[in-house]
Specification:
Blueprint (H helix, E strand, L loop, with lengths): L5 H31 L3 H10 L5 H12 L6 H28 L5 H23 L11 H28 L18
């Protein structure tokens, strides 16, 4: 029986989505110590310039408004959390693409996926869509903290992806390299 060549990509996407969810949850945990080390003057400045508590919550509010859904705070919060999780999940397959098709090893792929997420989302799309203030309105500390959080995401998505591949007996060795052949007993 001939194997379906599209099967591998669907496995990769599923692993990426799952790893993206795990990485998002890990990054959420990492946000707490990152915010604790933020100087109070930076917190005050961020509060003054940002259009809402977080870009995800602003996106949730805009989504509720666009869909003409009851604008209750709980709905905005729920939709904001859903957008946050969906964004993190959706970025997860980027790591797998970098491993399989760009042939990157785990650490460079982790750094590239985290850096790309920071540059494409935080530094470009989020301000362009009005989900945050323009970048130049934030202190450099805020932007560096966001970059650090995305590096945490990159490391977590790498660890989760590699672990899921091993768990599913789909060794990541095949990502970007020829699989090792074992002799039959």
């Amino acid at each position: 029986m001939k194997s379906d060549p599209s099967h591998r990509i669907w496995v990769d996407i599923t692993i990426g989505l799952s790893a993206g969810l795990i990485a998002t949850l890990v990054t959420n945990l990492a946000q707490h110590p990152l915010k604790r080390i933020t100087p109070e003057r930076v917190h005050r400045h961020e509060k003054r310039v940002r259009p809402g508590e977080s870009s995800s919550l602003v996106a949730g509010q805009k989504l509720c408004n666009a869909m003409d859904i009851d604008p209750s705070p709980s709905r905005h919060e729920m939709s904001g959390k859903a957008i946050h999780l969906a964004t993190g999940m959706g970025w997860g397959p980027v790591y797998g693409l970098l491993r399989r098709y760009a042939g990157l090893r785990p650490i460079p792929a982790a750094l590239a996926s985290g850096t790309a997420m920071s540059l494409i989302l935080d530094e470009s799309l989020v301000p362009a869509l009005g989900l945050s203030a323009p970048n130049h309105h934030y202190p450099i500390f805020t932007r560096l903290r966001g970059f650090a959080a995305h590096l945490v995401y990159g490391a977590a998505v790498a660890a989760a992806s590699e672990g899921l591949c091993r768990l599913l007996e789909k060794p990541s060795v095949s990502w970007g390299r020829s699989p090792v052949r074992r002799a039959s007993s």
